[in-house]
Design brief:
The chain has 355 residues and is α/β, with parallel strands linked by helices. Helix content is 34%, strand content 18%. It is built from twelve helices and 15 strands.
Length: 355
């Protein structure tokens, strides 16, 4: 590879070598703008992931030695068998082919109504710059030992993968789909524990970590915010611009409610549930008495209907359906709390309400 690149106009080779214990310190000392990794298969991705961890901001070009596939991490893939293809990839600016989060590309994997409803809502209500593609996998075995036969023939370039399957088999395909798409991040909601068990979550976390893809597993989906997910003592923080951009628009419901004379006049949905439930609830609350809208929000949430699981989560002491309903009620209550009557209570003798 060094021989092929040496002498190309505008390129200066500051070092080359085989993988060894001292390789990464040598790369840091050389401080290159671009590192070209020539390896096969998963080894190439593991090396690229380590380079990003140790040298944030560096550009990595991966050359698959098996078929000359060139991968500009983590942007888009191009195939070629000429030196010009590799040189072109090195010269491209770092942001080449990588849209800003505002122009995000989403690839959703769905199986049934649960995922389809989410995809339709994101397409209808998401930012105009988003491109959302959807794929339904074929019938899958319970255990997918080799994902290759079940993957789509073409995986389009994507920034974010949504895993919206209704069986553990679908989740087992996600690391390979993310790798083929050149994805930056994965959102795999847990709205039914049977669809994505704890053990499988840990496996996915490790496989995605190895290839440098961020992942979150919000339980339920509508607990996702721009910096965390899950509830109570299970709250998990994260930092990823692609997931945060998605969560600006879809996740834990946020309303802006205007009331007049004890009646809801208008409801603005600042963040919808991914399934569209918050938008449905907000529309139905208009015209209702302020004193009843918190209760009605929970009822409307169930009637939408929410498709989260009805099995009690032992670690949470409740069902995901009920927890999702609580999030919806809380989103309404926090907006109208100043208008609700204060509960009556006794003030002990010698104390004031402010003490």
């Amino acid at each position: 590879m060094e021989t092929l690149l040496r002498g190309q106009p505008g390129l200066e080779i500051v070092g080359a070598g085989e993988i060894a214990p001292e390789t990464f310190s040598e790369i840091r000392d050389a401080a290159p703008d671009v590192v070209v990794v020539g390896a096969s298969g998963e080894e190439k991705e593991v090396l690229a992931s380590r380079l990003f961890r140790e040298m944030p901001g560096i550009k990595v070009v991966g050359l698959n030695l098996d078929d000359n596939r060139i991968h500009i991490y983590y942007q888009q893939t191009k195939v070629g068998r000429q030196v010009e293809d590799l040189v072109d990839a090195i010269r491209q600016p770092l942001e080449w082919g990588g849209p800003r989060p505002a122009a995000m590309r989403i690839f959703a994997v769905v199986q049934g109504q649960y995922g389809q409803r989410i995809v339709e809502n994101i397409r209808a209500q998401g930012p105009r710059g988003w491109a959302v593609e959807c794929w339904r996998p074929p019938a899958l075995p319970a255990v997918v030992d080799d994902p290759a036969p079940y993957l789509p023939l073409h995986v389009p370039p994507a920034d974010l993968i949504l895993s919206l399957g209704e069986s553990p088999s679908v989740a087992q395909l996600i690391p390979d789909i993310a790798r083929r798409a050149g994805a930056r991040a994965v959102v795999a909601p847990v709205d039914h524990i049977a669809w994505l068990p704890e053990g499988l979550i840990r496996q996915l976390q490790e496989r995605l970590r190895q290839v440098g893809v961020a992942a979150v597993f919000p339980r339920p989906f509508c607990s996702l915010t721009e910096d965390g997910y899950n509830l109570r003592h299970q709250r998990v923080a994260y930092t990823n611009p692609w997931i945060s951009e998605f969560a600006r628009h879809f996740g834990r419901p946020v309303f802006r409610i205007e009331c007049k004379d004890g009646t809801v006049q208008s409801v603005q949905v600042e963040r919808d549930a991914a399934c569209g439930c918050a938008r449905f609830v907000g529309k139905e609350l208009i015209g209702r008495d302020v004193g009843e809208v918190v209760l009605q929000a929970g009822i409307l949430h169930h009637h939408y209907p929410c498709l989260a699981g009805m099995v009690i989560e032992r670690s949470l002491g409740d069902t995901l359906l009920h927890l999702s309903g609580q999030l919806m009620r809380q989103a309404v209550e926090v907006e109208i709390a100043p208008l609700l009557p204060r509960a009556a209570y006794l003030v002990p003798e010698g104390r004031s309400e402010d003490s």
